[in-house]
Amino acid sequence: MVLGQRYHHLPDTTPRGVDVSPLLDDPLLVVTAADRTVEGPIALRELDAHTLALPPAATDCGQAILGACRKAGFTPAARYVTADIAAQLTLVRAGLATALVPRTAIDPATSGIHTAPLDGHPIRRLLFAATRHTETVNPTTTALIAALRTAARQGDRATDLPEG
Question: What domain range is 11 assigned to?
């Protein structure tokens, strides 16, 4: 079993012989410093006025953000470019940037930040389990996928994120 992610803007390129079991649809949230709280939900277009910390454009997440921003009518100008979410959150906490971060990548215990959903068309990634296709059902694999789905539902903590 392999755990993976795929952003919704990308085509499904699952190879033959592989079964994909969706676990969680994970939206990106707007993350600002706690003292710069923006009441959400936030229209993506509003981020054009923010100093941004974004992942590199060559990454799947970077492509998803860039594509969504272009659809919203602007090209984001990132002041900070890093795929390291911890670094993005450090820049946000310091009041240096606003970031777009997957909800499950944000520890609810993180202080000094505020999160808000995107208004309208969210940017989302699919978290999934991939297994080799077999003609017979493997009870261990079935049980593990069921446990992962249960954990994903229990961990879906949108209301438990820091708000200041």
Answer: 2-160
Q: Which of 126, 127, 101, 124 is nearest to 114 (CA)?
A: 101
The arithmetic mean of pLDDT across residues 22-39, rounded, is 88
Q: 31 - beta bridge partners?
A: 99, 115
Q: Which run of H or of E encompasses 110?
A: none
Select from 68, 83, 95, 79 the least CA-distant residue to 8: 68
Instruction: Give the chain's length.
Output: 164
**pLDDT band with cut points at 50, 70 and 90 for residue 48:** very high
Domain total of the chain: 1
Q: What is the CATH number of the domain that holds 66?
A: 3.40.190.290
Q: Which long-range contacts (CB under 8 A, 24 or more apart) does 96-99 make?
A: 96/51, 96/53, 97/50, 97/51, 97/52, 97/53, 98/30, 98/31, 98/32, 98/36, 98/47, 98/50, 98/51, 98/52, 98/53, 99/30, 99/31, 99/52, 99/53, 99/54
List residues bridging with 81 in a β-sheet.
54
Q: Could you check whether the bond before residue 27 is cis, i.e. omega within 30 degrees of 0?
A: no
pTM, full prediction: 0.84
